[in-house]
Design a protein that fits this description.
Blueprint: E1 6-8, E2 11-15, H1 18-24, H2 31-38, H3 48-54, E3 61-66, E4 72-81, E5 84-92, H4 101-116, E6 121-127, H5 131-139, E7 143-144, E8 157-163
Parallel strand pairs: 5-6
Antiparallel strand pairs: 1-2, 2-3, 3-4, 4-5, 6-8, 7-8
Length: about 180
């Protein structure tokens, strides 16, 4: 994992700590919240142990975003899937939504992902009815792409991609983590 924190206008993205994951567990009000964020196979109710297992804690690059006052504001993960840097489990603290923090999180995660992995594109999955998230990702340059054949939920999710930079000749060399 990248050890150095990334900064933007007083905001800081850094490798998530166990205390961040403990706080993150409190951001969910019920099963529907968990499924929108972690997908339909994410266990609920969860325990501390099952939560960590379901986010691949310690096996997937996990990042926390802190506001200029040092408050934990958002969380996201990165891994390589199908030769793309996949952004996963993106979430903004419930009290802070609608303020552009999601865009800031995505922008900083893309910087972290580009530094960590050698891939030409980013990708992510989003539920079609999660309109706020869809607008955020569209504003960040993501477009709907062909849904991967090996993934379930094509009827309820979009698969979005966007270039890391202008299309080039680099290929992805990092090993993919389990999906």
């Amino acid at each position: 994992m990248t050890a150095a924190a990334l900064h933007s206008e007083g905001w800081e993205l850094k490798v998530a700590a166990p205390v961040d994951v403990d706080a993150l567990m409190l951001w969910f009000q019920g099963k529907a919240d968990v499924e929108i964020w972690g997908g339909p196979t994410f266990r609920y109710p969860f325990t501390r142990r099952s939560f960590r297992k379901d986010i691949y804690w310690g096996r997937m690059a996990s990042y926390s975003l802190f506001d200029p006052d040092g408050r934990f504001a958002a969380f996201g993960q990165l891994y390589v899937r199908s030769a793309r840097i996949n952004l996963a489990r993106l979430i903004v603290h419930p009290d802070l939504r609608g303020r552009g923090i999601g865009k800031r999180l995505v922008a900083l995660l893309m910087r972290a992902g580009a530094a960590r992995f050698s891939c030409d594109e980013f990708s992510l999955f989003v539920f079609r009815d999660n309109r706020r998230a869809c607008r955020c990702y569209e504003a960040m340059g993501f477009v709907v792409d062909d849904y991967p054949d090996d993934m379930p939920h094509a009827d309820v999710c979009y698969y979005l991609t966007r270039p890391v930079h202008q299309p080039g000749t680099r290929t992805c060399t990092a090993a993919a983590l389990p999906d």
